[in-house]
Amino acid sequence: MTTPDVRHRSGFACFVGRPNTGKSTLTNALVGTKVAITSSKPQTTRHAIRGIVQRDDAQLIIVDTPGLHRPRTLLGQRLNDVVRATWSEVDVVGFCVPANEKIGPGDRFIATELVKLSHHTPVVGVVTKTDLASRQQVAEQLVALQDVMEFADLVPVSAQDGFQVDQLADVLVSRLPEGPRLYPDGELTDEPEATLIAELIREAALEGVRDELPHSIAVLVEEIVAREDRDDLLDVYANLYVERDSQKGIVLGHKGERLRTVGASARRQIAALLGSKIYLHLHVKVAKDWQRDPKQLRRLGF
Ligand SMILES: Nc1nc2c(ncn2[C@@H]2O[C@H](COP(=O)(O)OP(=O)(O)OP(=O)(O)O)[C@@H](O)[C@H]2O)c(=O)[nH]1
């Protein structure tokens, strides 16, 4: 229960950083196993919700961002625009740098971008994977990180052994505005995995084409099976349904390139969700006017 002298806070956070810096693992450590059903997300964010930290005094919603890349193509630039838009929509950003790796050009590139928004969105420096470094190394990394940009706060954590995970939650929560829960309790879910996976794929597929295909994509996970003779690999079979042939083209992209990107992005998230390597078999199908056909709708899980 919220005590009268502590005001309830709620809002959004995202973690940014080079690939492999521990963002997903940290999100999972903060959130536990509860995942939000993104189809019921509040209108305040257009981005995939990775999880919700639910406390008596706060609700912290962690959203996902695709990685920021040095743009080489127009698509790369567009993607980066999406990333920046997300960063400026959240209440607090966590910039993740692992304790056991030297800060490099990739980190500095991200920092240059973060500095631009740090006057209106607080950026917390997060030194991750502290269990892989000595105390001395962690201390040095904190100092080195401070040289990269000015942070609202600095927190070393290990998602692996739980070191300072609660403290990080406190720091992030302290940066949220006062406000009521954005999700009622009931919307945190232990949804069947297939529903969550379908939602992750749908979100990935909508990224960047939401305006063109706002409500025209549905995803059905047909099967999740363990690969024979392997205990570390799951095959996930999913179909992505659109209403018209023209929409199929949009989803596939030139020579199927867009679908491959969508698949790769969804695969990473599904792997994080299931804690296993996965192979995603993703196919696009046209289900004519599925939004108006109750039979189709039921089949697609609506
Ligand atoms: N020892 C240790 N390993 C960690 C920790 N956090 C993450 N890892 C490992 O580091 C690797 C990358 O972690 P992820 O959470 O996937 O990193 P990410 O930043 O989300 O990666 P991308 O999705 O590629 O951007 C995985 O093998 C994790 O198991 C930690 O606190 N300690």
Automatic annotation (TrEMBL):
Protein keywords: Cell membrane, Cytoplasm, GTP-binding, Membrane, Nucleotide-binding, Ribosome biogenesis, RNA-binding, rRNA-binding
Known role: An essential GTPase that binds both GDP and GTP, with rapid nucleotide exchange. Plays a role in 16S rRNA processing and 30S ribosomal subunit biogenesis and possibly also in cell cycle regulation and energy metabolism.
Complex and partners: Monomer.
Region (G1): 17-24
Keyword Cell membrane in annotation: yes
A Gene Ontology cellular-component term: plasma membrane
Alphabetized InterPro entries for the sequence: G_ERA_dom, GTP-bd, GTPase_Era-like, KH_dom-like_a/b, KH_dom_type_2, KH_sf_prok-type, P-loop_NTPase, Small_GTP-bd
Stretches assigned to the Era-type G domain: 9-178
Residues reported to bind GTP: 17-24, 64-68, 128-131
Main location: cytoplasm
Annotated region described as G2, given as residue ranges: 43-47
Region (G3): 64-67
Gene Ontology terms describing biological process: ribosomal small subunit assembly
Membrane topology value: Peripheral membrane protein
Subcellular location: Cytoplasm; Cell membrane
Region described as G5: spans on this chain: 157-159
Family: Belongs to the TRAFAC class TrmE-Era-EngA-EngB-Septin-like GTPase superfamily. Era GTPase family.
Gene Ontology molecular function terms on file: GTP binding; GTPase activity; ribosomal small subunit binding; small ribosomal subunit rRNA binding
Region G4, residue ranges: 128-131
Name of the protein described by the UniProt record: GTPase Era
All residue ranges annotated as the KH type-2 domain in the record: 209-288
